[in-house]
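REQUEST FORM: STRUCTURE PREDICTION
Request ID: SP-0412
Submitted by: Lab K.M.
Chain count: 1
Length (residues): 278
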Amino acid sequence: MPLICFASPKGGVGKTTLSANVADMLRRQGRTALALDLDPQNSLRLHFGVPVGDLSGFNAQLLRRPDWRSCLRQAASGTLLLPHGAMELRDALEYGVALERDPGLLATPVREMLADPRVVVVADMPPGPSQALAILMPMANLVVTVLQSEAISAAMLAEIEAGRFLGNGTMAALFAGRLQFVLNGVDMASRLSRTAAEAVARHLGSRLLGAVSRDDAFAEALTGQRLVADAAPGSRAAEDIRQLAQAITALLPANATMPPPAPPRAAMPWTAPEWGTH
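STATUS: Completed
RESULT:
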């Protein structure tokens, strides 16, 4: 039932990495987690072990109104995944125009996903303003904004905090209050990174959900197409993700149904399971 959107003012800040690992950590907490990739880079799938050459996905087919259940994948860990799919530039332009004309193309299937009270949907949004984010904002419980621990984040903080990257107009202003923040790539050994992180933390206060350290464990996990909690469970990266997931959980609706923990099971192939049966 809850929807968590991971967004960012710009690309290259680790948004997709955090989306994938938080979705996995929510699953480890006993929730049914669905990772939804709406970023045309189509890279969320790589964190869950989908082969590089497998370019199929839900969002790339959206103009043909596919049944999203038929595009659903399940990772060996149990996390559900809707990959974005490969998309040519011309298709991407048509996609943006189509969403502006008919927001229901995306809103309707997402509402169907959220109708299952057992499910928490973690959506990896395109960087910067997008039609997809404008459509999902009214449905989202949280918009988790990923900032890199660098000087530019501290310098632009007032504009970022105001939610201007969400787009212009009344709709963006109305839902800017749902913005929460996470600092990524904090390097405590770097004076610049630490100073920037401290400045951001002081300014945001309670709206800062957490900070994630710069840790090679993330890159090493992605190289093996694994989640950091699997590849390096004792790492600082895994602990930071665990704390971030806990902070997010604390802000989710109290009436969100928590299913009983599933018993351990053998790894499953990448198939399209029945929705809500896992």
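NOTES: The domain at 3-251 is CATH 3.40.50.300 (Rossmann fold).
Reviewed by: T.R.
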